[in-house]
Design goal:
The complex is a heterotrimer of chains A (127), B (548) and C (447). Chain A has four helices and nine strands; from the N terminus they run E-E-E-H-E-E-E-E-E-H-H-E-H. Chain A has 127 residues and is α+β, with helices and mostly antiparallel strands. In chain A, the strands form two sheets. Chain A has a six-stranded antiparallel β-sheet. Chain A starts with 7 loop residues before the first strand and ends with a helix. Classes of the chains: A alpha+beta (127), B alpha/beta (548), C alpha/beta (447).
Chain lengths: 127, 548, 447
């Protein structure tokens, strides 16, 4: 699968797609494939502040549970309501319809610390 | 914190939407209806005698239950005849695999035979009818039994003292960790020592227990031989270490041959050494944790000592402790308050009572250093008496034989499956052996799960899968000492056959099981749309009961 | 006597296959320095010798002919059919249902159990059970801490003393402070939790109020008011209830309970000197992810058959590890099965009969003793089937009756120093008129 190059990737397998002053966050296909069927997410409320690389929630599958680590700092302005009733969207379309939340970017320069698509592909190729 | 995925709707009966709506129009086939589906108004099994007139009259002179306290909610318990009840549960039971049916080589669970003699003992009216708060003169038998079992476990584990109070292995762990913290506090190091070290092969209860007691967990890697990485351990130990929790033999079925150095390192760091006794079946009579230097160990009576697993409990998890931890044992302990311990033991071992012996429970508050109480009363006495019967039946020679045969059986299986499955640690194992299905996974996309499901079609239970976490596609096999060689040979043949089929027709293996009462179940749906209890179709708005 | 089937020939054959000389070779990796130096256990016994030994110990117990002892464990009828069900080897010798395809018996029976607990308590979801009512209550209090983010727990003095101790022990783990709320145990007191004290002690930093209904003294607490007082401070209310009493008493779900726990021993489980018992726990659906213990859920297989599985396992220790809601690894499956069989065997009418008979005999007992001037009720609040009585020289008289095979309940003073000369007596459906007559006669004579 080709990784979209309109976004950056963290080593914890999150992606963030910058859109102006905001960023949309999700999990990569690699991550959801590892987790298996996603059944539940625990997310902060709108208005919560995220700190880059800190845990901001939990994703739960049938067999595993994992922290979600913020790829960038910011404030949550929206989360994907669809996931409330259809968490399986994260498995079927992790890079698009399965997005998790949208934040305002506190410092766009933080994205430089993340990987671009080719570097991330190399990372998961080696895992 | 908002929770995506919750569905907090409530129906008119006041109960939540805890039911699953199948896709519109789909009717599921039912293997065995629930009791609620069998229920018909007016049917009943057991009745109670009516109170006498005299009783009613006397009672009427006393204030009745106030109306404000009376039940307005429905009481929709099943209404079935006794025969229907019996058939329901008999049919349900026949959907289960069990030790009493066929082989059950679940690693880490020690699925040995559960002797029926123990069941006979549990039903003796003198034991089954003993109330936990009966005054001393009425409960000398119960107290003596607990005292004797504690003495036997002390000897088996090499410990100074034992508590029988914990109701399960995990409960024993909790007790041990609470005691660990109390110990460090007593030395003024409670705030400083907050970290518990566990190997990466640890059972999930270990870090969960540490968390419950306010500790954080740090993982220590295993080495290439399957033991703990001693250098990493030494690096991790420090003034902030409260304890090391390890299982020995490890969850890989391998005895930690560096145990001497491990315990020295832990002691030198001022930390507590906790042994998870789940694998005790491997070392009875050969290794005594307390004697070797462990401070605390929990025994799993439902593993090593043959008490039945019951489909998931009840178990019992007594703990043995070193002298420095003894003051912190949960209260109350059963004590011998009159009579010489050696005499009482000698008499009991010869089947005799000691006339001048007196047993009593510690009175409340008698031992202020106790960490408190971890459950009501004295623990799972029903399991204590079964374990006692088992230990007395076996004696020293018998328990040594248990270990010898358990280890023999596991190695016998080990040497016969290495050609078909990867063996991550190719060395003598103890009572269990861990294989990996990674070859099958990589070459044929047949996982450990698929193999387990294929085993179900052979009428036996699969080994433990995906544990320990450090082995890819793990298959943990623990035959135990109570299986015949023919059964072990049959298991080996089944495993070879499945390995062959995985290569020849992997899709068929992935489609299993096919002969079980139900096939693979949709676990994702179960977690996404939880249906955790029967939803009565007629939502009762008025609160009147369904019958009468 | 061992249960191993191996003959010497078997062992020799296995050793040969393994390629070692003797079984000791399989233990060569145990270093000398840690080998057991002793293993002094009694010699093995045959079946009849084991029977004799267990009979010896059973014989050292004396089961009283007449007993009014309750205080958390009750002598009740265990229908023969319940014994049969839990005696089925397929239930008793099965393991935790991790391979659901061959565990539908266990899984479905747990689903039925969960359903029954919800029905009795009027709550939305119930766990597959805990070790006992006390540990369920302690876990419930910790659950309330997680749900509210608060770190203090208030518990009424009228809650069973052992439950309070277990609660304190569990709370000491994560450093949750336990605050005791007084009860009115004065001379002419109600015997109930002090509502004013609740209002002042349960503040914004308290996660939950823990109360028992009926309370330790058998008295009926003002549950709606207590729930309101807790909720007014943003705290939850954890109610420890008696499952048989729920046949007649209001379901906690209807008076605002957030977490309900109970000791299920009364539901077909023998006294057995304290265990194994059965902890029930139920809550609202929106708290399900913080609910400790196993959960069974209904689902389907590919062939369209209904089936049951352990679900929401990501809460549990084997997946979440250090983030688990609890470390609990077993439930009390066989005890839960007994309860399920019991509740189906008695049905709603039977449970009502058992509860009613218990309350009638309690009133019969009190009337008899009061009329004879032997004892008087200690507290003024309404009671269910357990009652605290005041009588002079309670301790010595109690002991004298024990000699005669009559157990006049529990002497309360060791646990409640403020209540000298007080006995706590319980009646159940097994209490006969003759029991009451004999007790009255013996107490009267022992005056």
């Amino acid at each position: 699968m080709t990784l979209p190059d309109d976004r950056r990737y963290s080593r914890e397998h999150e992606w963030i797609r910058p859109e102006g002053e905001e960023g949309v966050i999700g999990l990569t296909k690699f991550a959801v494939d590892e987790l298996g069927d996603i059944v539940y997410l625990e997310l902060p409320a709108i208005g919560a502040k995220l700190t880059q690389f800190a845990s901001f929630g939990v994703v739960e599958s049938v067999k595993a549970v994992s922290d979600l680590f913020a790829p960038a700092s910011g404030v949550v302005v929206a989360f994907n309501e669809e996931l409330r009733t259809r968490p399986e969207l994260m498995n079927s379309d992790p890079h698009d319809a399965g997005w998790i939340c949208r934040i305002t970017l506190a410092d766009p320069a933080e994205l430089d610390a993340l990987l671009e698509a080719p570097a991330y592909a190399e990372l998961i190729g080696s895992e | 914190m908002s929770a995506v995925g919750e569905r907090p709707t409530t129906d008119a009966s006041g109960r939540g939407a805890a039911f699953h709506s199948p896709p519109a129009g789909e009717v599921l086939r039912v293997v065995e209806p629930t009791l609620f589906e069998r229920s018909r108004p007016g049917r009943r099994a057991v009745r109670f005698p009516a109170p006498s007139e005299a009783a009613r009259k006397a009672a009427a002179s006393q204030p009745p239950l106030p109306d404000a306290a009376r039940r307005t909610a429905p009481l929709r318990l099943p209404e079935v005849s006794e025969l229907e009840l019996v058939r329901h549960f008999n049919r349900l039971s026949r959907l289960n695999h069990a030790i009493d049916i066929d082989f059950y080589p679940l690693g880490s669970c020690t699925m040995k035979y559960n002797p029926k003699l123990n069941e006979w003992a549990a039903r003796l009216p003198g034991l089954a009818g003993s109330h936990p708060l009966d005054p001393g003169p009425l409960s000398q038998g119960s107290l003596e039994l607990q005292w004797l079992l504690a003495e036997l476990l002390r000897e088996i584990g090499g410990f100074a003292a034992v508590s029988l109070q914990p109701a399960a292995g995990a409960h024993g762990e909790l007790t041990g960790m609470l005691m660990t913290r109390a110990f460090h506090r007593s030395r003024g190091e409670g705030d400083q020592r907050r970290v518990v070290l566990v190997p990466d092969s640890a059972h999930g209860t270990n870090p969960a227990t540490a968390s419950m007691v306010g500790f954080t967990t740090r993982t220590v890697p295993s080495n290439a031989r399957g033991g703990i990485d001693l250098d990493a351990l030494r690096g991790a130990l420090g003034p902030d270490t409260a304890a090391l929790m390890i299982t020995n033999p490890s969850t890989l079925g391998i005895f930690e041959d560096q145990i001497h150095d491990v315990l020295n390192a832990v002691q030198a760091a001022g930390a507590i050494a906790y042994m998870d006794g789940a694998n005790l079946n491997a070392v009875l009579g050969r290794f005594r944790a307390g004697e070797a230097g462990f401070d605390v160990m929990h025994f799993n009576l439902h593993k090593t000592f043959s008490t039945p697993h019951g489909g998931g409990g009840p178990g019992a998890g007594p703990i043995g402790v070193s002298p420095r931890l003894a003051p912190f044992l949960p209260a109350p302990l059963p004590l011998l308050i009159a009579g010489d311990p050696a005499t009482v033991r000698a008499n009991a071992w010869s089947g005799r009572s000691t006339p001048d012996a007196r047993f009593a429970l510690e009175p409340p508050g008698a031992r202020p250093t106790a960490i408190g109480q971890v459950r009501t009363f004295g623990g799972n006495f029903g399991m204590h008496l079964r374990a006692y019967a088992y230990i007395r039946a076996n004696g020293a020679a018998g328990l040594r034989q248990v270990t010898d045969d358990a280890v023999l059986a596991a190695n016998y299986v080990r040497v016969q499956l290495g050609d078909a499955y990867d063996l991550p640690f190719d060395r003598i194992c103890k009572h269990e052996v861990v294989f990996s299905a990674r070859r099958q996974k990589r070459e044929h996309d047949v996982s450990a799960l698929d193999i387990a499901k294929a085993i179900l079609d052979e009428g036996i239970h699969p080994p433990t899968i995906y544990f320990p976490l450090i082995v890819e596609e793990a298959l943990m096999i623990e035959p135990t000492e109570t299986e015949t060689r023919e059964t072990l040979d049959r298991f080996v043949a089944i495993m070879h056959d499945i390995a062959d089929r995985s290569a020849r027709d992997p899709e068929a293996v992935r489609q299993s099981p096919r002969t079980t009462p139900v096939g693979r179940l949709d676990e994702a749906a179960a977690a996404r749309q939880p249906d955790l209890g029967w939803a009565f179709p007629e939502a009762d708005r008025t609160g009147a009961t369904l019958s009468g | 006597m061992t249960y191993s089937p191996h003959t010497d020939a078997d062992r020799v054959a296995m050793l040969e296959a393994i390629g070692v000389e003797s079984v000791d070779d399989l233990f060569a990796d145990i270093p000398e320095s840690v080998r057991a130096s002793r293993f002094d256990l009694p010699p093995p016994l045959t079946e009849q010798e084991v029977r004799a030994e267990l009979s010896r110990l059973a014989g050292l117990n004396r089961i009283p002919e007449v007993s009014f002892l309750g205080a958390g464990a009750y002598r009740r009828l265990i229908p023969a059919v319940v014994d049969e069900v839990v005696g089925r080897a397929e239930f008793a010798t099965a393991y935790t249902p991790y391979q659901p395809e061959v565990s539908q018996g266990t899984l479905q029976s747990i689903y039925e159990f969960q359903s029954l607990v919800c029905e009795l308590t009027g709550m939305e979801v119930a766990s597959a059970s805990h070790y006992d009512g006390a540990t369920a209550t302690a876990e419930g209090a910790l659950m309330a801490c997680r749900l509210t983010g608060r770190h203090r727990v208030a518990v009424s003095r009228a809650v069973h003393p052992q439950v309070r101790r277990v609660l304190e022990t569990y709370c000491s783990g994560p450093g949750v402070e336990v605050v005791e709320v007084p009860a009115d145990l004065s001379e002419t007191g109600s015997g109930l939790t002090d509502l004013d004290a609740v209002r002042s002690l349960v503040g914004e930093d308290v996660a939950c109020l823990v109360v028992q209904e009926p309370n330790f003294f058998g008295l009926l607490e003002p549950m709606s008011e207590l729930a309101e007082a807790a909720h007014a401070a943003g705290a939850l209310i954890v109610t420890l209830v008696d499952p048989v009493s729920l046949a007649l008493l209001e379901a906690p779900g209807r008076y605002g309970a957030d977490i309900v726990t109970a000791e299920g021993q009364s539901l077909g489980i023998p006294l057995a000197f304290g265990g194994p018992y059965l902890g029930l726990m139920a809550a609202r659906m929106n708290a399900v992810r913080q609910l400790p213990g196993r959960l069974v859920g209904a689902t389907r297989d590919a062939a369209g058959r209904r089936g049951y599985v352990l679900t929401l396992q990501a809460r549990e220790q084997h997946i979440r590890r250090e983030k688990a809601a609890s470390n609990i690894c077993t439930n009390q499956a066989l005890c839960a099965l007994a309860a399920t069989a019991y509740l189906s065997a008695v049905g709603p009418e039977g449970l009502r009969e058992a509860a009613e008979r218990s309350t009638i005999q309690a009133r019969h007992l009190v009337a008899t003793l009061e009329m004879a001037g032997i004892a008087a009720r200690r507290f003024t609040a309404p009671y269910f089937n357990e009652v605290a009585l005041r009588l002079a020289d309670a301790g010595p008289r109690h002991a004298a009756l024990v000699e005669q095979g009559i157990l006049a309940g529990l002497v309360v003073e060791p646990e409640y120093p403020e209540l000298p000369d007080t006995l706590l007596l319980a009646t159940t459906e097994l209490t006969t008129d003759d029991d009451i007559r004999r007790l009255a006669a013996a107490l009267g004579a022992a005056a």
